[in-house]
Amino acid sequence: MTGLRERKKLDTRRALSDAALKLAFERGLDSVTREAIADLAGVSLRTFNNYFSGKYEALAYRQTERLRRSITVLRERPRDEPLWTSITEAVLAPLEEDFRDVTGEENKIPSRAELAEVRKLLMRPEIRDAANKELFDEWLEVVAERTGTDPERDLYPRLVCAVVRAVGDAATEIYVRSDPPVAITDLIRAGFAEVAAGLPEPTTTRRSRR
């Protein structure tokens, strides 16, 4: 029974997050309210307040949830696997799982206008920082465990976590600007591949293709 109750809570969170994103696409972020989100999701304002502190947290929920799931995946990856391979698969696994469920508002293919709105959302510091410090600390802990480093005293695990975020940010920036569209998962995988290779300077051939 506990499992069913938790599943219902998860479904409600996702429904509220999807409703927030749909409203942001249709009306623009500044016109989105907690009341409108609750109404579109078919729940009361009180229910919304039980799950989220405000619209920014609701908008960022899917991303935050994926970060939590990626931590779990990273802990389960083989210990003898190269670090950046493990990180790549851990970051992509929740995305690829969600994209197999194309019924949610967030997972449908966005139009060009919606991509422009996505970029506006991503530039808002309230949304960028919605993945709270607790999640960063969890990432830091698991990276430190895998690398035998001290999360409090060593620079390395913090650099790794900063790079993970940077790859996500860079891939997202390209994603919302690309015409024709490029799959976000392909961009993230390519970004981590560049990092794993040591970020070699682009060759003349690669530069000319761009």
Walk me through this protein's architecture.
The model has no long low-confidence stretch (mean pLDDT 86). Helices cover 72% and strands 0% of the residues. It is globular, with a radius of gyration of 18 Å. The termini are far apart. The protein has helices spanning 2-27, 34-41, 45-51, 55-76, 83-99, 112-123, 125-128, 133-147, 156-177, 184-196, 204-209. The protein has a domain at 60-199: Orthogonal Bundle (Tetracycline Repressor, domain 2), CATH 1.10.357.10. The protein is an all-alpha fold and 210 residues long. It has eleven helices and no strands.
Write the layout of secondary structure elements.
Blueprint: H1 2-27, H2 34-41, H3 45-51, H4 55-76, H5 83-99, H6 112-123, H7 125-128, H8 133-147, H9 156-177, H10 184-196, H11 204-209
Helix pairs in contact: 1-2, 1-4, 2-3, 4-5, 4-8, 5-10, 6-9, 8-9, 9-10
State which percent range the strand residues make up. Answer: under 5%
At the fourth level of CATH, the homologous superfamily of the domain at 60-199 is Tetracycline Repressor, domain 2
SS-based class: mainly alpha
Report the biggest beta sheet as strand number plus sense, adding barrel if it closes. none
- Parts with pLDDT < 50 across at least 5 consecutive residues: none
* CATH-level-2 architecture of the domain at 60-199: Orthogonal Bundle
C-alpha termini separation? 55 Å
Quote the average pLDDT. 86
- Proportion in helices: over 70%
Shape: globular
Q: If you compute it from the alpha carbons, what radius of gyration comes out, rounded to the nearest whole angstrom?
A: 18 Å
Under CATH, the topology of the domain at 60-199 is which?
Tetracycline Repressor, domain 2
Give the ordered list of helices and strands: HHHHHHHHHHH
- CATH class descriptor name of the domain at 60-199: Mainly Alpha
Number of strands: 0
Counted by DSSP, the helix tally is 11
